[in-house]
Automatic annotation (TrEMBL):
Region listing for Disordered, in residue ranges: 1-21
Family, similarity comment: Belongs to the CitG/MdcB family.
Keywords: ATP-binding, Glycosyltransferase, Nucleotide-binding, Transferase
GO molecular function, one term: glycosyltransferase activity
Function recorded in the entry: Involved in the formation of 2-(5''-phosphoribosyl)-3'-dephosphocoenzyme-A, the prosthetic group of the acyl-carrier protein of the malonate decarboxylase.
Biased composition (Low complexity): 1-18
Phylogenetic classification of the source organism: Bacteria, Pseudomonadati, Pseudomonadota, Gammaproteobacteria, Lysobacterales
Gene that this polypeptide is encoded by: mdcB
Name the UniProt record assigns to this protein: Probable 2-(5''-triphosphoribosyl)-3'-dephosphocoenzyme-A synthase
Species name: Dyella japonica
Pfam family, one: CitG
Record flagged with keyword ATP-binding: yes
EC number(s) recorded for this UniProt protein: 2.4.2.52
InterPro entries in alphabetical order: CitG (IPR002736), TriPribosyl-deP-CoA_syn (IPR017555)
Amino acid sequence: MNARMSAAPISPVASSSPECSFPDRVATWAERSLMLEIETWPKPGLVSHVDTGSHTDMDADTFRRSAIALRPYFAALVAAGMRNASMTVLRKIGLRAERAMLSATGGVNTHRGAIFGVGLFCAAAGLREAGLVDARGTLGAVVRRRWGREILAGPRLPDSHGEMAGTRYGAGGARQEAAQGFPSVYAIGLPALRDAQSLAPGHDEAARVQACFTLIATVEDTNLLHRGGAEGLRFAQQAAQAFLDNGGVGDPAWEQCAGRIHQAFVRRRLSPGGSADLLAMSVFAMELERWPSDGSTVEVE
Ligand SMILES: CC(C)(COP(=O)(O)OP(=O)(O)OC[C@H]1O[C@@H](n2cnc3c(N)ncnc32)[C@H](O[C@H]2O[C@H](COP(=O)(O)OP(=O)(O)OP(=O)(O)O)[C@@H](O)[C@H]2O)[C@@H]1O)[C@@H](O)C(=O)NCCC(=O)NCCS
Ligand SMILES: Nc1ncnc2[nH]cnc12
């Protein structure tokens, strides 16, 4: 594998500075996870530091401005989790974050799903740090146990792309993924990241590409259903699976192969935004789910 140097420097995680609070440390990593997702190419149909994929209204800088704007809201979600806040409270913070996102992007929806998913992971990190739940549980398990029922019962956005995909195709979307504890992160994205990084240490961008394709091959992404219907979702999943069956990033010609698939998505205007968010969440979990140093294990359900 030959990794590509990121085009833009990623701000160093401030976790080493002693005066940095726990919410700030987690928010720094949440912002960095969104930045690393953008600094990954090729991601079929998606925006990266190389090109804008299937989009004409947003580019890498749009996402970077959004990620920077969201950082204080991720910190607020961590702090809310430390206070054992309800989903109603988290939702209010999330809606303020969405307004900040739209202000930073000139009205473009870059990260609504990521505000929800990464935001829930931030709140779960706070709840776990406060000792209010079993420290051995994953962030996903904490989300499922503490807020899963409220997420499913909570208010819905009747005209959202996700709701329309749910009504038309029966897709569970982001809400179902969250209520189940983000199985796509723990059973698909995170293992793919770890396996690829162990095969080729230091080639982190290639590992993120591998994880992205692995997610697209499996996730019922409502963005793909919104833009391409059931046929578009099937095309995307089969194309991603073919890349993996051919060896993924372990194949010497992987970048050319992945680039061709990227262009095939662009020709069809397909954009797996949900898989992009789940990739960012998998990167986030890589840091937050470090195996405890005392040798005990993190409970992965
Ligand atoms: C709970 C919500 C996430 C609402 O979800 P819902 O499904 O009702 O509607 P959407 O607004 O469509 O948001 C879902 C977004 O989640 C991502 N996603 C899709 N499939 C999955 C999946 N299987 N698992 C996980 N996540 C998934 C995806 O987000 C990304 O794509 C975005 C771009 O979206 P869009 O603009 O529609 O796509 P385009 O193709 O660009 O549109 P056009 O150009 O064609 O117009 C972007 O959002 C990415 O993040 C889905 O979009 C949540 O919205 C909600 O209720 N929020 C309220 C606040 C809150 O509760 N916060 C909690 C804080 S802890
Ligand atoms: N890189 C990306 N491109 C398009 N939509 C996205 N949603 C989240 N990340 C994205």
